[in-house]
Amino acid sequence: MTEITSSSAAVLAGLISSKQVSSVEITTAFLDRLEKLNPKTNSYLYFNRENSLAQAKKADQQLADGTAVSPLHGVPIAVKDNLTTTDAPTTAGSKILEGWVPQYDATVVRKLREASMPILGKTNLDEFAMGSSTEFSAYGPSKNPWDLTRIPGGSGGGSSSAIAGHLAPLAIGSDTGGSIRFPAAMTGSVGAKPTYGAVSRYGLIALASSLDQIGPVTNSVMDAAMLQDVIAGHDPHDSTSLPDSLGSMVQSVKEADVKGLRVGVIRQLSSDGFQPGVKACFDDTIEKLAAAGAEIIEVDCPSFEYAVAAYYLILPAEASSNLAKFDSVRFGLRVTPEGNPTIEDVMAATREQGFGPEVKRRIILGTYALSSGYYDAYYGSAQKVRTLIQQDLAKAFTQADVLLTPTAPTTAFKIGEKVDDPLAMYLNDVATIPANLAGIPGISVPNGLASEDGLPSGVQILAPAMQDGQMYRVASIVEKLYTDQWGASLIARVPDLEAL
Prior knowledge:
Layout: H1 9-17, H2 23-41, E1 44-47, H3 49-64, E2 77-80, H4 107-114, E3 119-123, H5 157-164, E4 171-175, H6 181-187, E5 190-193, E6 213-218, H7 221-231, H8 249-254, E7 262-266, H9 276-292, E8 295-299, H10 307-322, H11 343-354, H12 357-370, H13 376-399, E9 402-406, H14 422-426, H15 433-438, E10 442-449, E11 456-462, H16 468-486
Parallel strand pairs: 2-3, 2-4, 7-8, 7-9
Antiparallel strand pairs: 1-3, 4-6, 5-6, 5-10, 9-11, 10-11
Helix pairs in contact: 2-3, 5-6, 10-12, 10-13
């Protein structure tokens, strides 16, 4: 591992802008590393050296001409493979889209190109982002750089393992119920889910449209803030895009101050059901904040008891609708049975062969929840619970500036340990789901290694809707508490993949 591949994006951006190192040199260093080590981690599903270096050369030329276009100018980035790209396949981790090259870029991808950030490649994910471990990818699971026998989280395990393995300085993820934050906790990285609508979803292959949100996966809070500033903003192509700017996240990080901070601890997410080492790390974070001058307040969110159940009715219902377009007619895989098949026969054969087990499970569940006679009992009731969760959070935010929870109930589990137990897999998202149901921002920041296994734990910081700056401000405070203790970010302590 070189000094370049172990540096933060903010440091790399400074080296590029001062012309100490070129974008080509940095991009080459990461390409060399990922070509060598991606077979171990399966972080990337696709990369193209020639294409990435061409983008880096363009960034260097712009800098030479005095036309640098962004604070992250020339810094390379990895993109989750459920965002459309015109110069690379977009599979969403599914066989049904194998080899499909879209005709348009997602808005986030367009913004990255406009910011002159070379795209290193497309990262692995659970098929159509349905999963918590990346084990449901049609192209095999990603591995956790801390321990290659363990999961890196999901659905965006490819992005998180790329960051933790120093195979990219920045990555883009998508978060429907925790798919950015949960992998961040599993790998000791930083993962942020912005307020719903803060980042355009145009070009994101939809899982659940009322829950999906794109956000940064990085190795520091400042890197995440810088990346959100690049990708956020109103987009007329997305009807749910917020019309107003949320301001500069970078400026919020610079203004971080614990004085007068009210930190809420959610009673329902602070005790039972969490691995002892994870709970100990969380308690340590609360103690550090209190010692630094923050006021710690316990808040009550009784409807959280039903969050997982509500989520796993709303998400499958929306997914069954969104995935109806994959029917063998418009694009993607087409399987034609023998004989004289009807279009219904072709559609059934294609979906049977093209979709994996978790996608089929959720389509069936969602279709059932939306069916005549069950809509009000299941989907309608789940939406009522969603409203109660929103009300609980609104009340909690009258008592506290931010809310803190453990990001995940456990550290990274072994590959194969939960893959045949859907309920156990779904419970991984118990702490992250409420933020998606309410549309509020959330971020996971590393807060230590669990004593039982020496694997990373994460603390989640939630803020009111459209107060992403407050979330980043507190995340920076938490990060600094541990940086002072460790001397560097937790991700600097990941075992070197070259030695594994």
